Amino acid sequence: MTPARPAPTIPLALILTVLLTAWWAALGWRDLGALRLPEAHDMLRLAQVRDWTDGQAFSDLTQARLGPPGGAAMTSSRLADLVPGFVIRVLSPLMGPRRAEIAAVVFWPELLFFVHLLLSGALARRLGGDASSPAAMALAALAFPAIAVLMPGRIAGQGLQLVLVEAMALGLLDGRLLLAGLAGGTVLLLGSEPLPALAGAMIWLAVGWMRDRRPVSGFGVGLLAAALVGTALLRPDIWPVDRCDGFTMPLLVTMLLAGSIWPVLGAMTRHLPDMRWRAGAAALLAILSIVIIWFAAPPCLSGWAEMSSNASWARAIAYAGLPLVALGYGVWLIRRGEPRPIGLFLSIIAASLLAAVIRLELAIFAAAFAAPLLAQWVMRAHGRNWALQAGLWLLCAGLVWRTLGSFAEPAPDPRAIGCTSHETLAALGRLDTGTFAAPSELSGYLIGATQHRSLAGGGRSNPRGNQAVADFFRATPAEARVQANLWTIDYVALCATPTGGLPASMLKPDGLAAHLLNGATPDWLEPVTLLGSDLPVWRVRAVAAPGLKP
Questions:
Q1: Is the pLDDT score of 409 beyond 60?
Q2: In terms of DSSP bridges, do strands 537-540 and 491-493 run parallel, antiparallel, or are they unpaired?
């Protein structure tokens, strides 16, 4: 028997993955080699993985060095820790823990990038046949901002969410609803960020049921199975009931409710032969679900309302340029009567773009689905004028939009970059271990790169600590002294920028932050000189706050 030949897309995906990962790793090797990862969330994830590999219980997601005494309960499940933790455990005896960690933070995003390319090619194949698959993979390799969560060091979990959403969409297109539901449910075990993309996919599925009475029950069964298995295997010891930013009780309620709708619709199909009755039933169930979520899991609705976007026009161009082009092209195809699977791409892209108005980073899902859709456009132009083809490739390349956005955006303040540089982190690591009151961005790096504690950081997983730091910097110096004692703060740090790395809401004219930025140091603080860094740091005198002992 002749052995099966490998699919032609696999070698292309492998070549693109190796070349681009090597290029990105080389560009950022100075930071990667020092385990200074691209985002504060990645540093927190590295700290979580370390705690687990050092013996912390699988179900204990508490970050003991974050937040008030006792730590902060992180809401993301251990699912994102499995592969990095496995790599570290296997390689540590061979090359030492540090090199094993470097290998893990490079390999895991590289693997996800490879899967992302394969899934993009497969999605494009469902739209335009085998010929469009290589073009889709090439565009997917350039699809900013989606690729930003798949670069070396990006281990926070968004990359895994991205490929799972792509797998869910592929399952929907292939009619493998159970697998699609399992993928969609697994995505939510990692956090609530993909909810808009999942909502877009479910709208497409519901429209297909209303029009053609397509089967939908399997999708709900998959969602329910993922929710129940996740609860059995991944439920943390501390399970917050007041947040919906990760695998929490309110999100589980939402998953169970969303999963239950589809079998109900499937059972009603033969009793509702008229499309208008099916549309009414779907609308009624949707409204009922929103009402139940409002009462049973309010954080899953109010949490989105509380978010705000700080996007500039430059960032909006960089993040939304590619999805908007894909959205326009997809609408044009629909108006020409192209196949309905395009509707799935349009629904996910549109829902993700709407969510990006609130939180710009959610455009990653829109960019990922833009690549296979725009590959159809590129292939239709194949063989035409070379200038037209080149212009189309540039229009459909996400990195081009990223470059355009960077032209419109002011150059980053090097002092802000120095706030979390590896030289600064190394200097901070040489200080006696203590608790820091510092900007949230710096706090994530403190947890991941040193043995210090940080009162702030961790986003919505650490509401008490973040509020305490906000109150601390807004307080007058005399009031802040009392709070330093209350929260056992040992060090105060600000970035060497006009705002100190703090949001404007923390810069009250008579507040501690304003005093420190203006060079007025209270007598209960003493400046600390960091070798190799200009980060302003002050030590709290022992009379004000005993702090933690090394």
A1: yes
A2: antiparallel
Identify whether 347 is part of a domain: yes
Tell me the per-residue pLDDT of 475-495, one tens digit each, with 9 for 90 and over. Answer: 999 999 999 999 999 999 999
CA distances from 126 to 130, 204, 281, 339 (A): 8, 16, 30, 10
Residue 549 CB contacts under 8 Å (≥ 6 apart), including other chains: 433
Among 108, 127, 150, where does a domain finish?
108
Task: Output helix, strand, coil percentages for the chain, rounded to the nearest 5.
Answer: 65, 5, 30
Closest CA to 83 of 30, 12, 157: 157
Give the whole-angstrom CA distance, residue 48 versus residue 338.
Answer: 47
How many whole angstroms separate alpha carbon 263 and alpha carbon 275?
A: 18
Query: Is the same domain home to 432 and 383?
Result: no
Given 406, 430, 465, the domain boundary residue is: 406
Examine the domain organization and report whether 120 and 160 are in the same domain: yes
Give the Å distances, CA to CA, from 248 to 61, 256, 461.
12, 12, 11
Q: What is the pLDDT of residues 281-315, one digit of tens each?
A: 888 888 888 888 887 778 887 666 556 566 678 88
pLDDT tens-place string over residues 255-289 = 999 899 999 999 988 888 888 888 888 888 888 88
Q: Is 409 exposed, middle or buried (0-12, 13-18, 19+ CB in 10 A)?
A: middle
Give the sign of the dihedral formed by CA 265, CA 268, CA 269, CA 273: negative
Q: Express each pLDDT in 204-237 by its tens digit.
A: 999 999 988 889 999 999 999 999 999 999 999 8
In angstroms, the CA 48 to CA 432 distance is 22
- Residues of the domain holding 65: 9-108
3-state SS class at 191:
coil
Say whether both 300 and 443 belong to one domain: no
